[in-house]
Amino acid sequence: MSKHWSRLISQVQPYTPGEQPREKEYVKLNTNENPYPPSPQAIRAMREAANEDLRLYPHPAYENLREAAGRRHGLNKEQVFVGNGSDEILAFSFLAFFDPDEPLLIPAITYSFYTVYADIFQVNYQTVPLKDDFSPRLEVFLRRRGNVLLPNPNTPTGKTISPEEIEKLVAEKEDKVVIIDEAYVDFGGRSAVPLIRDYPNLLITRTLSKSHSLAGLRVGYALGQESLVEGLWRVKNSINPYTLDRISARGAAAALEDEEYCQRIVSRVVQTRERTGRKLEEMGFQVVDSNSNFLLVTHPDYGGEQLFKGLKERGILVRYFPQPPVDDYFRVSVGSEEEMDAFLDTLAELV
């Protein structure tokens, strides 16, 4: 800690990403990356964009990318906001929509960046406990006063809620903002995007990191009616009008246009997830039903931290979360068939 830090930064506990050690070669199954390469169309577009125009700033409205996202979801570009990953868009959302004295409701077990943002933007958040099967208690979200931030599917559980349940929540909280984080929805969830037409208080965030294999590109987008999207533009243009570079914007637009390729690799990930889940259950593990590109796993005879450390010692990286009620579990990202075979073989040695 430095004496020159602000009081706020001295008190904040920053987000901790999945570890990326470099001392040896690992099978990396801890950060929910897609095991397959991006669309060849996206790679080609980025190569073409790496030209002499890089001496110029990108256009701050990113219209081509917004139009591509709009076409993908049946919206117009005025209903699309783009940014440097959905994490940045969520940060902008805290500034745009959440007042410090207004409660924000989030699941008790969820993406840990939410509480970091709440702390740094000094938003009063309340956590809502999960059910025994790790599903969210929507009746509590409905009963309590406040804005809502829900991932669908949730992380690290992989559990989903239906668009019908989301609509009930959005309709009940018509004077509040409801943000649905759909980072993993392409792997088996049902998107709430069609609800945007009827609900001006609904914002949906998406990322190209997972289903489009572009985690290294850092591009995300948000979808909502124009009034919410304008709020995000006001924040962006008060901080950094150029959140994306020319190459990223071109590559992301091309990836969104190549929907056939995206669906093909998502299908492969889902098939591997289902096969891995069955194998784990045959080995005596309990696996939480998942509609994402990861599995939350526990064993009645071995602790989650014990298995996490044992796998790491043998060159397999997974993710461990020490807080109850998931402290007996570990989360494993779905890799390639070969990576999951290595994971299963190593796990079999441990148990």
Portion in beta strands: 5-15%
What is the C-alpha radius of gyration, as a whole number of Å? Answer: 20 Å
Question: Major beta sheet, specifics?
Answer: 7 strands, mixed
Number of helices: 12
CATH class of the largest domain reads Alpha Beta
CATH topology of the largest domain: Aspartate Aminotransferase, domain 2
What is the domain tally? 2
**Structural classification:** alpha/beta
Care to describe what's here?
The chain is 39% helix and 14% strand. With 351 residues, it is an alpha/beta fold. The chain folds into 2 domains: 7-37 and 260-350, Aspartate Aminotransferase, domain 1 (Alpha-Beta Complex), CATH 3.90.1150; 40-258, Type I PLP-dependent aspartate aminotransferase-like (Major domain) (Aspartate Aminotransferase, domain 2, 3-Layer(aba) Sandwich). α3 (63-73) runs parallel beside α9 (246-257), α4 packs across α8 (226-239) and α10 runs parallel beside α12 (337-350). The longest helix has 24 residues, at 259-282. The protein is globular. The model has no long low-confidence stretch (mean pLDDT 96).
In short:
The protein is an alpha/beta fold and 351 residues long. It has helices spanning 7-11, 40-49, 63-73, 85-97, 113-120, 138-143, 163-172, 226-239, 246-257, 259-282, 304-313, 337-350, and strands spanning 27-28, 80-83, 104-107, 125-128, 147-151, 178-181, 202-207, 220-224, 286-287, 294-298, 316-317, 329-333.
Please supply descriptive tags for the structure shown above:
Aspartate Aminotransferase, domain 2; 351 residues; single chain; 3-stranded antiparallel beta sheet; Aspartate Aminotransferase, domain 1; 7-stranded mixed beta sheet; globular; 12 strands; alpha/beta
